[in-house]
Amino acid sequence: MEKVRAKKNLGQHFLRDLDAARRIVELLSCHEGYTKVLEIGPGMGVLTQYLLQHPEYETSVVELDRESVAYLQVHYPALSPRIHSADFLHLKLDELLGGSPFAIVGNFPYNISSQILFKVLDYKDLVPEVVGMFQKEVAVRIASKPGNKDYGILSVLLQAFYDIEYSFSLPPEAFDPPPKVNSGVIRLKRNGVTDLGCDESKFKAVVKMGFNQRRKTLRNALRALQIADHPLLNKRAEQLGVADFIELTQLVGSGIIPNVEITEE
Fold this sequence. Notes:
The chain is of the alpha/beta class. 32% of the residues lie in helices and 18% in strands.
């Protein structure tokens, strides 16, 4: 009981559906070039046991909870050298696995799942694939296309660099303790884009500013920027695809770009 309570405080819910765990691992499409896999938040090793059934993967795990780390060391001794007792959000991913590309997989703590993906974006050239469990509404948002009310900041920023597929859903009963929401599994695969054709920091600012006032036209939402007039400014952020946001970013002047926080996501 103390174990479950501790993990719940970390935003973690143990996956108890073994078939779902197997399906998550099977979604990984690692091949020669990135055979390393990093699991975030393995807990008691429900996903880990299936990862270790693939000798072609060099599996490592990152776990913050010390009791879980101790459990993994006892039950998966061969994994011990690759168990990192740390907070994923504070890790330098370019140093963690020797600078080699690696896939990320996990039943992610829901309270930091968006932060995990923003960190993935920071290291996108090292992370060709992500397969993860999220709160369903977050998973749907990430995979949503323009014109959908669920489409938002994460949708655009991630879809600029990844092809995203919503794979399957799970009810609360698949977890212990059960969350109060449904869950969804998505797969992100790097799309090969290395250059957006615009300044990436400006692109992020335009996307964030547009969605922070998503009920307004972009002409109003982006009024703080030096941006040339364009028909796209008459639309709202949720109506624009990645290419549209790139086109708008190319029109932004050379003035100072504000550091934009997310206020609606």
